[in-house]
Specification:
Elements: H1 11-18, H2 29-50, E1 54-58, H3 60-68, E2 73-77, H4 82-88, E3 95-98, H5 102-112, E4 117-120, H6 127-139, E5 144-147, H7 161-169, E6 172-180, E7 183-185, E8 193-195, E9 200-205, H8 217-245
Parallel strand pairs: 1-9, 2-5, 2-6, 3-4, 3-5
Antiparallel strand pairs: 6-9, 7-8
Helix pairs in contact: 2-5, 6-7, 7-8
Length: about 250
């Protein structure tokens, strides 16, 4: 797969997409009731299944390195791993960017039950407003997170948001990947992975990426490509891990 999110877009197109401060789409009262109910059920399922997972973690020192440097972390991972990641990183007061559509509303309500905060926006709608809110969160000493190929894909193609936020704040981009030995995949755009009860779960954590506050377009592109490459390698390493055990 070619990862050309930057090279195929002009500076003006990037600027336009990231500075669109559009208002959230309206949600009817009936939709709000259903979203509230479904988000509660989803959170309950995450907790019940999450309590049974058997975790293996590699690279714990990478997040510690960010904190030792006096900085905060920009958690960055693929949208398909949101179920397991929500459970693993719970109750850390992390701010997550979620879209302004109905799916984003559902995710926002569900993850708030696990101690997350949210910034509403995406690469196509309200992105810069959400980035500004996340920058304030980082400055106040709290971490933030991106499902970096969301909200609608393409799957496994990263958006540029974490790099721009790292340039603005000096925070470290912290890429990780969660892989499940036993899972069920939804037939949606991101192939959301739902762990089966008592599955083994592997989380791989990469060294941080830092972006200079004076970074020009060339450096931003290089850091974006580095982030994409790291996420690809984490995913491949995790999948190879289970193949070796099978």
């Amino acid at each position: 797969m070619k990862h050309n999110f930057i090279s195929n877009k002009s500076s003006e197109e990037l600027k336009k997409g990231l500075t669109f401060w559009g208002k959230p789409r309206s949600i009817s009262v009936w939709q709000q009731v259903w979203i509230a109910l479904l988000s509660f059920v989803a959170a309950w399922i995450i907790k019940v299944v999450g309590l049974t997972l058997r975790w293996e973690s590699q690279g714990d020192e990478q997040l510690d390195a960010i904190y030792r440097s006096g900085r905060r972390a920009i958690f960055t991972f693929w949208h398909g791993g949101i179920f397991s990641a929500t459970w693993y990183w719970r109750n850390r007061d992390i701010m997550v960017m979620t879209s302004q559509n109905i799916d984003g509303e559902f995710i926002a309500r569900a993850i708030k039950l696990f101690g997350y905060d949210t910034a509403r926006g995406s690469s196509s709608r309200g992105g810069m407003k959400a980035l500004a809110k996340m920058a304030q969160s980082l400055k106040s000493g709290k971490d933030v997170a991106f499902t970096v190929d969301g909200p609608r894909g393409p799957r496994f193609v990263a958006k540029i948001g974490p790099v721009l936020l790292a340039r603005r704040t000096g925070a470290g981009i912290f890429c990780f990947h969660v892989s499940l030995q036993r899972k069920f995949e939804l037939k949606n755009w991101d192939r959301t992975q739902l762990p089966l009860p008592f599955s083994r779960a592997l989380i791989l954590k990469a060294p941080p990426i830092y972006v200079s506050k004076k970074a020009d377009r060339s450096e931003i592109k290089q850091k974006y490509q580095e982030m994409q490459s790291i996420l690809d390698k984490l995913q491949q390493s995790a999948e190879n891990h289970w193949k070796k055990l099978s």
